[in-house]
Write a structure and sequence with these properties.
Length: 520
């Protein structure tokens, strides 16, 4: 297997299995001595814990497990790394060398990784040593992730706030008075942030106002991923005024289900003019509605709506119809909907509001209960057959699907560029009549197909003659086959794989029942 890997990948595999010890530090020393360029890959995305324990010599670094007492009388164990004494400049050379490669760094109050049983923490002595370095510690840093820092650590945050940071990930805990001054520090030092990911669990009105100022202070921001508790119309109005914003993800926590909407109810809210991607996750339909009215004229190419734990005033309310009819979707290429709507209603709305010449990816998940008759995919999907640019189709429901080889034939004739078909049910019932011959026919007509997940209804392995592929060329694009909804016995897996190899000579994994098999 190692013959297929690069030097960096081999060493990454080694690093993942060697415990924190002198052996690991010795390996890092060897890597440093040879100055292997490919090793830069290992250090592009690391945590501060990883950087410290892999590069500082064990002669001055102590990593110990410490038992801590809790207020309720119980105990907990933490793994703490600390310096035995202040390091000499040459003892920090290896850290400085590898830090120069780091492009993405995670700084946390507590780390967890792999097989380590206990939370891992860095002692203040580590930060004292970093702050006394005479040269830039992270000259290549472009992405910084900050989460749940203890108060004392905020005093050292300037070590990591370099002007060239382009992506920032910041998590705000529920009650932390250090967040406001920390945001001010970040705003002063990182003016060129283009992508911001913000997790705000605070209940403080003052912090909400400061968050608005924080987001609006970045004049080059193109991407924003924001999770919060309170629905806030004033925030939406502010975001619409950012001319550079192209990609927006908003998540309203389930904690905000019964929260009042903050901010003024604006009659003439701003409209997003340049937004291309919008993803909204919310338990409140009333929060999504005003947002969609603000993207009427936006050139949306990607839209994702996830309506979770909805408390609708009427069971007859159709989320897809209520929301999608409010926006212009003529340029939309990707649409994702997760709601309690019936799939039939969602697909009907999609066919009426999206453009057949633009839509490439359709992902609809029905989250309602599993009772009721099977979903008739054959008739339900027919309006979408005119969307000839479809490449990805994903339909998910807790109900069972009624689907046949005839439907797959229509897929093949209508969607020649199909790359992924994923139709999954959350029930053990199977109303499908799909056979392996139908799947083979789909693959022969769709040369770009890579992933097939379908509820096949067969009980034995097929023969090559039954597939009708004796003289046909196989589809070498398909890499993954998933028939987990099939009643086919797992014992037949080798025979099935052998036969399907004639149709899919390059496939790598096949799933039947609860088992996933890798084929080489």
């Amino acid at each position: 297997m190692h013959q297929c890997l690069t030097i960096a990948e081999v060493l990454d595999h080694i690093f993942a299995h060697i415990p924190v010890s002198g052996n690991r530090v010795s390996l890092a020393t060897v890597c440093h001595a040879f100055s292997e360029p490919a090793l830069k890959i290992l250090w592009r995305d690391v945590s501060l814990w990883t950087l410290v324990v892999h590069t500082i010599p064990t002669s001055i670094l102590d990593v110990s497990e410490i038992t801590m007492s809790r207020e309720n009388g119980s105990t907990t164990v933490e793994c703490v790394a600390r310096l035995i004494r202040p390091p000499r400049p040459e003892e920090m050379d290896r850290l400085v060398y590898y830090a120069s490669f780091v492009r993405s760094l995670k700084v946390c109050g507590s780390y967890r990784k792999g097989k380590y049983m206990y939370p891992m923490k860095l002692d203040p002595s580590i930060f004292d040593a970093l702050s006394f370095l005479q040269r830039p510690t992270l000259p290549s840093l472009r992405c910084l992730s900050i989460s749940y820092l203890p108060g004392w650590m905020c005093g050292y945050i300037d070590i990591f706030l370099v002007p060239d940071i382009r992506r920032l990930v910041f998590s705000m805990p529920a009650n932390d008075q250090t967040c406001i001054p920390l945001m001010a520090q970040i705003r002063r030092s990182c003016e060129h942030v283009e992508a911001l990911e913000l997790r705000n669990l605070s209940h403080s009105q003052e912090e909400f106002q400061r968050v608005h100022e924080f987001i609006g202070s970045f004049g080059h921001i193109r991407q924003l991923d924001y999770m919060h508790i309170y629905p806030d119309d004033a925030l939406l109005h502010m975001l619409a005024g950012i001319p550079t914003l192209e990609d927006l993800k908003l998540s309203l926590s389930a904690l905000g289900l019964d929260m009042p909407i903050l901010g003024l109810q604006l009659r003439h809210a701003r409209c997003f003019q340049f937004l291309k991607m919008l993803e909204v996750t919310s338990p409140k339909l009333s929060y999504i509605e005003p947002l969609l009215s603000m993207v009427q004229s936006a050139p949306l190419e990607h839209l994702a709506l996830k309506c979770t734990v909805l408390k609708l005033t009427s069971p007859s309310v159709n989320v897809s119809d209520t929301l999608l009819t409010r926006v212009t979707l003529s340029r939309l290429e990707q649409l994702h909907i997760q709601s309690t709507d019936f799939l039939e209603d969602s697909l009907s709305t999609v066919s009426a509001t999206c453009s057949p010449s633009s839509l490439k990816c359709l992902d609809i998940e029905h989250t309602y209960d599993a009772t009721g008759p099977a979903i008739p995919v054959d008739s339900m999907i027919r309006p979408l057959l005119a969307f000839h640019r479809i490449e990805h189709l994903r339909l998910t429901s807790r109900k069972t699907f009624k689907i046949s080889d005839k439907t797959l034939e229509e897929f093949a004739l209508s969607w020649p560029h199909l790359k992924c078909v994923y139709i999954v049910t959350g029930t053990d019932r199977n109303a499908s009549s799909i056979t392996f011959k139908g799947i083979a026919n789909l693959a022969f007509h769709c040369p770009y197909l890579e992933h097939i997940t379908l509820p096949v209804n067969v009980t034995r392995a097929p023969t090559i003659e039954e597939l009708g592929c004796q003289n046909a060329h196989g589809n070498s694009s398909v890499k993954e086959l998933d028939f987990r909804s099939s009643p086919l016995p797992v014992e037949c897996i080798e025979e099935v794989a052998s036969v399907l190899r004639h149709v899919f000579p390059a496939f790598q994994t096949i799933s039947i029942g609860p088992s996933i098999f890798e084929i080489y």
